[in-house]
Amino acid sequence: GMLSAPALAVIGMSAFGTAVIGGPLAMTFLALEVTGEFPIAVLVLAAAMTSSLVVRQSFGYSFSTWRFHLRGETIRSAHDVGWIRNLTVGRLMRRDLRCAPASMTPAEFRAAFPLGSTQRVIVTDENGGYAALIHVPEIHADANAAQPKAQLADFFCQQSDILLPGMNARQAASLFESSRSEALAVVSDRIERRVLGMLTEAHTLRRYSEELDKQRRDIIGATE
Questions:
Q1: Mind telling me which residue stretches traverse the membrane in this protein (predicted)?
Q2: Taking 90 as the threshold, does the pLDDT of residue 168 lie above it?
């Protein structure tokens, strides 16, 4: 006969739960524990397995696995996502830099970097090492102030927040969060601080998504 509404609800929730957290067998046993009916448990198993296969083919892993992945945890599913630890800052950083010496005056800086030319400029010291970041819109906005700042150093930010090329994406994301910055400079080491590139949080997420899609395509291609 027709299944009752509660039975259909259990089957639907089990399929949805499998898509979110995985574990079709766990969902089946849970449904059996709740209903105590083997026929419904069999239908739940079929629905959960179907849900698991659809999610695996279309997305690669369950929602909970993805959330753990964003936190940098190395866990394995149908699609191994532990490769995030090998996604280093050196691979992700951008090398098309805009740099300025710390000896510049604010007026010289504005002339060299007009509003709209770039968002951020890396400032280097007399030895060519990293000194700070300057936000271009901020220094241009100050030109219209009643008392404009006279020193370029007044606009310095992220002086101590730097990335190293050997850091992985998890460490970079943690530093972005702790520094509350959308971009950080990548330097050779903490002593010489020779500028190698720049990495933005948005670029990190974009490159990460590209690598994720590539890994998923490779897995799907290998199983076909």
A1: 7-32, 38-55
A2: no
User: How far is Cα 47 from Cα 13, in angstroms, rounded to an integer?
Assistant: 10
Residue with tokens 């300057």: 134
Partners of residue 100 on adjacent β-strands: 123
The pLDDT value recorded for residue 3 is: 79
Pick the closest to residue 207 from 75, 41, 107, 93 (CA basis): 93
CATH T-level topology, domain 89-206 = CBS-domain (3.10.580)
Give yes or no for a contact between 181 and 161, defined as CB atoms under 8 angstroms apart.
yes
Residue among 153, 171, 154, 150 at smallest CA distance from 162: 171
- Report domain extents, the chain: 5-58, 89-206
The tokens describing 56, both together, are 């695996």
The pLDDT of residue 1 is 56
> What is the rounded CA–CA span in Å between residue 136 and residue 151?
15
pLDDT single digits (tens) 47-66: 999 988 887 777 666 677 66
Name residue 121's beta-bridge partners: 134
Strand partners, 157: 133
Predicted TM-score of the model (pTM): 0.57
Token pair in block for residue 129: 């090492």
Per-residue DSSP letter, 129 = B
